[in-house]
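Supplementary Note 2. Why include the ligand at all?

Several targets in our set were suspected to adopt different conformations when bound, so apo predictions alone were not considered sufficient. For every target with a known small-molecule partner we therefore ran a joint prediction. The input for iron/sulfur cluster is given below.
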Amino acid sequence: MQEGFSAFPPVERWNDWVERGRHYSLVPTTCFNCEAACGLIAYVDQETKEVRKFEGNPYHPGSRGRNCAKGPATLNQIQDPERILFPLRRVGARGEGTWERVSWDDALDDLANRIRRAIKGGEPNKVMYHVGRPGEDGYTERVLAAWGVDGHNSHTNICSSGARAGYAFWMGMDRPSPDYANAKCILLISAHLESGHYFNPHAQRIIEAKQRGATIIVMDPRLSNTATHADHWLPTYPGSEIDVLLAIANVLIQEKLYDREFVRRWVNWEEYLRAVRPGTPATFDAFTRELERLYADYTPERTERDTGVPAKTIIEVARAIGKAGSAFSAHNWRAAAAGNLGGWMTARCLFFLNVLTGSVGTEGGVVPNSWTKFVPAPHARPPHPTTWNELTWPKEYPLAFFEMSFLLPHFLKEGRGSLDVYFTRVYNPVWTNPDGFSWIEVLRDESMIGRHAALTPVWSETAWFADYVLPVGLGSERHDLASFETHAGSWIGFRQPVKRAIEERLGHDVTDTRDVNPGEVWEENEFWIELSWRIDPDGSMGTRKHFESPYRAGEKLRIDEYYRWIFENSVPGLPEAAAREGLSPLEFMRKYAAFEIPVGAYGRHEAEVSPEDMAESSVDDRTQRVFTSRAPSPSSNIVPLPAPPADVEGRRAAGVMVDGVALRGFPTPSGKLEFYSPTLAAWGWPELAIPTAIESHVAPSGLDASAGEVVLVPTFRLPVLVHTRTGNAKWLNEIAHANPLWIHTSDAAKLGIQLGDLLRVTTEIGYFVVPAWVTEGIRPGVVACSHHMGRWRVADDQGTDRWSSALVRLEERGDGRWRMRRVKGVEPFASDDRDSRRVWWQSAGVHQNLTFAVHPDPISGAHAWHQKVRVTKAEPGDQEGDVVVDTVRSHAVYKEWLAKTRPAPGPDGMRRPYWLLRPLRPSIEAYRLKAEV
Ligand code: SF4
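The joint prediction is reproduced in C-alpha cell form.
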C-alpha cells in the first residue's frame, strides 16, 4: 500500500468489510474513463451483489489510492438507466433510428462470414477496427494480426500525433514519462494532460513537487486549472509557443546554462555537422558555436514583440530551467501540439530544453515512455500483416503518427477504397472528430461501408448510424491489461469484471462474462475470441490457433487463461510476489489488480550492450552504431525496447559507441538524440530537420483583424469530463454541462457584448451559435470553447444519454449543406433512476466540432484544431446550439491541406521510414511502395 493510506480498509478485510452496518466485498479494478487506468475499488454489497461505490485502490502504483471525479462516477455509468443492454440490429435505412433485438450468435455469424469472405477474397484490408480509447495494450492488435488484417485505426491523429512526432524524431519513443514528483522545475504546455488525460496521476505528483518548492511554469492562452497553480503563467498566443521555447533555449545556450557533457555524449551533433556544415571540422566546440549562431535571433526581446510574453519572464523562466538542470521535467500532449499546423515542432522544441539540460532519463527529468510502459507478451504472437492499408496509411503522409483516421470520409468519397466490415469501438467520430457531417454522409452509404458494428456501452451519435449496436462492458465489467507512463516507474493494471471476481471468490466458475453482466452486455475480449473462431471454424486459415488455450490443446481460449499465461510467464517478479502470499499469479492480480514492475526507470541509455548482443555484433565505422545479428529475446516486451527493429538491410541495432563504450542509447537511426533528423531531411523536409520555428495556420500574419478574425482554441478539457465517454455519468454532467465561448473583457467590449449574450462563431465551412463567457482568464484576441459539450440525439427517447444531450433536428438542405437546430435542451425525464426527474440544468452546450474542416498537418498528420474564426453577435433567428455546415466546402479544404504534403516514396522506395513507430507494423515488404505501383 502507498504511504499515507493506513486508514484505508486493510486488504485482509476486503472479503468482508463492514461500513455503516453493511457488509461489502471489495474488488479492485481499474478506471476506464481516461487512459491513465487509475486503480479503483468496487464496494460490492454482499446482500444485493450490486456495486455501491467506487474508491481508489491504494495498491495501484500510478494513482496511489487517488482518483479524479471521473473514477467514482463509474458508478453512474454502470447504473445508467439508458445504457444499452442487448445487441441491436438496424431495421430500415441507416440513421433512421429503428432497431430490433438480435442475438449475439446472429450478429457474430454475419460479421464472421463477411470478414472471412474479405480475407479469403484477398481483400483483408476491407476490414477495419477503429478504436477511440483503447484502454488496453496489445489485445486487439493481436486479434487483427491473427486475422492478417492491417485494419487498425485509431483516434490518435485528432489527439496526440503532433506531440508524438515531436518526441519521436528526437528519441525514437513518442512520449515521455515525466518524473514530476522529483522535479525542481516543471514546464507544461497544458490544458490537456494535466487537466484531463492522465490528470490524476500527474496532478498529484505536480502538486507534490510544488509543495517541495519546485517552480511550475505553464504556457496556455487560457487560465486553466493548472495555470492557476503555476509560478509563471505564460498566456502565449496560439502557435507562438515554439518561439518562446526557442528563446528559452537561446538563453540557456548564450548563458552556458546547458549540460555540455550530456549534449556532447548524447546528441548526434557530428551527424549534423557532416550533413549541414561539411566544411567544418566535426568537433564539439564547432557544434557549440553553431548552436549559438542558430538560435541567436530568438532573443527574449524579439520574442516579447512577437508573442507578448515579457522578455524578463522568458529570462527568469530560462534561468529556473537551467538551475533545475537534470531535474527539469516537462510535457506537451495536446494543446499547442494538437492545435497548429506544425504543432509537432512544439514538442520537439520543448524536448530540446530537456536535451540541453541533460534531463533525459534522470531523476526529476523525463523518462522515455518505453522505459516505463510495460506490455507483457501473450502466449501466442501472430506475425504482423503482409499488406499495407492505404485508407489509413496513405502515401501522402509517410511520417504520420499514426493512422490518418479523420480523413476516412474524404478518402471514401474520393473512391480510394471501401469497407466490408467497419468496427467502431468506444469511438464516436461523428461527434469527436472535425467535420462530423461528412462522417454522417459516408456512414449512411452502404456502398462505402458494407457493415458497421458499433461496440459501445452506450448510445452515441455514431452508433446511431450503425448496422449493429453491440453492448460491451464498462470499466468494472471487462478485462483489460494496461500500463501507462504516469511517472518514473513501471506497473501493470488489471481491469477485471468485479461481479465475476465476486462469483469466483465464492467458488463459482464463470466462463462467460455475460453471465454476470447486466442484460447481455459482453466483455469485448471474449467477443473477439468467439468471432475469431467463427471466422476460421476449422483452423484452415491459421487464425484459430491463436485463440486456442495454452493449457488445453485445441480448446477455445478462455479469457482467464489468456491473462493467467501472461501473469505466469511474462511479468518479471510477479510469480515470486504471488508465491510469497501463497497465491497463483492470476489470484494475486485478482486480489490487487496492479503490480509494480521492479525495474529501474532512469539512465537506460547509459546501460552497456549485453555481452550476448556484443558477441554477435559489428560496429558501423561512420555512424558508430552497434548492430547485432542476434534475434531479440522472445520474452521481451512487445512495445519497442530502446532498439529499433531490423533496418532495411535486416540488421538489428543493439546500441551505439560512446567514448569507446558500446551503450544501449536510443532507438533512433543514430542511436543518439537527434537534434538533426536525417529522416526529416531525407523525406523531403530538410528545412525542418532541426528544432526551428514553423508558422501556424492561425498566425497573426494570416488573420484579418479588421474583419474581426480571431483564433478559436477549441481543445481545452475540463477535469470532470472526457469527450463523450462521460455523457452517461449524471454527477459529472451536473457539475459541467455548458461550453460557452471564453472571450476577454476587452474583446467583448469592442463587440458590445455581455456575459451570456449569444454569439455567432463563423469558421471556414460554417458557423455555430454559443453564449459568451466574458472573462479576464484568457488572452485578448483569442477565444476558447471546451470540447466536451454539445452532445445530441435525434429521437426523444433513444440515443445519446439524456443527462447530457439536446434533442435536435438534422436538416439536409442539398449540395452538402446541413443545419442542426436544437428542439429542446436537457430536461428531467422518467426512468428507473429517481435522479432523472431532478435534472435542473438545461444546457447541453454546442457541438462546435461539426463546423471544423479537417486540417491534417503534412508531417505528423495531426489535425490542427485551432480555427481562424469571426466572432459576431448572433443574427436574428439564430438559436443557441445552431450549427450550419457546408460539406462540399469541407472537402475543398481537405484538398487544400492535402496539397501541402510531400508524399512517399522516400529513400529505398519506402512508404514510411522503417524505424518509425507504427501500430501493427507490417512486414518490410509491405513498406515498399514500388511493389504496389
Ligand atoms: S485520471 Fe480520473 S478518469 Fe483518468 S483513470 Fe484516473 S480516475 Fe479515471
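The two ends are 58 Å apart (CA to CA). Residues 391 and 681 are 26 Å apart (CA to CA). Comparable summaries for the other entries are listed in the accompanying table.
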